[in-house]
Amino acid sequence: MNIEMTASEKDIKVISFDVEGTMVTTDFSASIWFEMIPQRYAARRGLSFDGATSRIRQEYDSLGDQHLD
Question: Is residue 56 within 8 Å of residue 44, measured between CB atoms?
Fold first, then answer.
């Protein structure tokens, strides 16, 4: 099967699937967004966990809860 993409399809950067509540729990999602991501960010930037969490929450808040920008 040969599938050709249109120009607009080539511009797609993110495809998001909402699996919360079907494939993963809310607790699992929260652990990714509010524990694992801040831990990785802290390690890469040489920050404390609390410092990283504060910066990341500011970014989350600037986007709102319905955006992937």
Answer: no
